[in-house]
Amino acid sequence: MRITIIGSGYVGLVTGACLADAGNHVLCMDNDAAKVELLRGGGIPIYEPGLEQLVRDNSAAGRLAFTDDLKKSAAHGEVLFIAVPTPPDEDGAADVRHVLAAARAIAACMAEEKLVVNKSTAPVGTVHRAREVMAEELGRRGKEIKFSVVSNPEFLKEGAAVEDFMKPDRIIIGVDGEGEGGGGKARQVLEQLYAPFNRSRRRMLVMDVRSAELTKYAANAMLATKISFINEMAALAEILGADIEHVRQGIGADRRIGHHCIYPGCGYGGSCLPKDVQALRRTAAGHGYEARILAAVSDVNRAQKTLLAKKIAAHFNVDDGGRGEGWKKLRFALWGLAFKPNTDDVREAPAIALARHLLARGAQVQAHDPAANANAKKILGDGLRLYDDPYAALSGCDALLVLTEWKVFHNPDVKRMASLMRGRAVFDGRNMYRPAMFSAAGFTCHGIGRPA
């Protein structure tokens, strides 16, 4: 099948590479000429395990190509995926201008029947609006060309996106009836396209467009809710003298709850959960409904990102409210800058918020991340000292702050740490360690919802 991807960012690039690997001829379009040249040369603009090799292999096989020519890309595809950003606007609602602009641009170029698939995360009603702008553009051109617009939300976890696409939990297709939306034919085309990823068991769920659009937001809101809930329980565990790790294992053993996303930490981040929770709240508010649980989820997460800063201030007996001589004497090592392991994404990352907090108070901050150093530097500038080796970042530090659960951090050499560091404090923002493993070397380990 001939496939066009409009937008070669995270979702678009993974989608294009995986569909090409299934034998389709895929043309990825992006209006960033520098990104297109990078991709043509075999490089990729993001860190994602397995993706670079997938892009290179399928490019070499002639199944995957890249362009910044919209007219060429519109002509190429029988199926055109829209995979463009939907950033939050000033009030937190998702900005769908890029989605609608892509739909209009397709209609301005198309010369034959097309199936347009929105893969961008967009509020309920966006597919309907995309149909309207396409019909409007075709009317302006004086053309009567059939088209369908459907919803196919993505469920890709950063750090495991290729595997998620190749072996999905579910494939959501939102189509309407046989009339305006062309649901029957669109469904058949997408069932054929996704058949290679749907062989071992039926994973495709077909529903109406509005339900598909809401499913994406509801899924991310549920994940965020589980994270904020366990973080709130961790705060209560500290007050009551319980250990949240025991509590987590106890409640996770209940199959109705499960172990996924009930790991206490210093807050969630990334490009999806914070943005999508806010966007869903704005959607609810726009229809006169107050989403109270979602408001609490956001509030808990916002507070969680400040928790380690408060623990640090208490440990070193410094004023957390502003700059002071006490802060200027302190040096901190940060292990982890990305919002999660196996990605270089630092958007809304708790580590970035904490580093900014410490730097603003005059403290020295030294950091290492296996993939995200460069992206962190773009945000924090030269005030943040970056190291290619995690132990080099420990030199002369008063405390280690562990903020991303990369595997390389799981079994640290505590004796080596002691020989490099000035202080003996570890702030475990992901509850990766047993506090007792540090005690023999004289360290105090502060976790989340755990006794030190």
Could you explain the architecture of this structure?
The structure is a single chain. With 452 residues, the chain is α/β, with parallel strands linked by helices. The chain folds into three domains: 2-207, Rossmann fold (3-Layer(aba) Sandwich); 217-303, N-(1-d-carboxylethyl)-l-norvaline Dehydrogenase, domain 2, CATH 1.10.1040; 305-446, Rossmann fold (3-Layer(aba) Sandwich). 43% of the residues lie in helices and 13% in strands. It has 18 helices and 14 strands. The strands form three sheets. Strands 3-2-1-4-5-6 form a six-stranded parallel sheet, sandwiched between helices. A six-stranded parallel sheet has the order 11-10-9-12-13-14. The radius of gyration is 24 Å and the shape is elongated. The relative contact order is 0.09. Mean pLDDT is 95; it is low at 178-182.
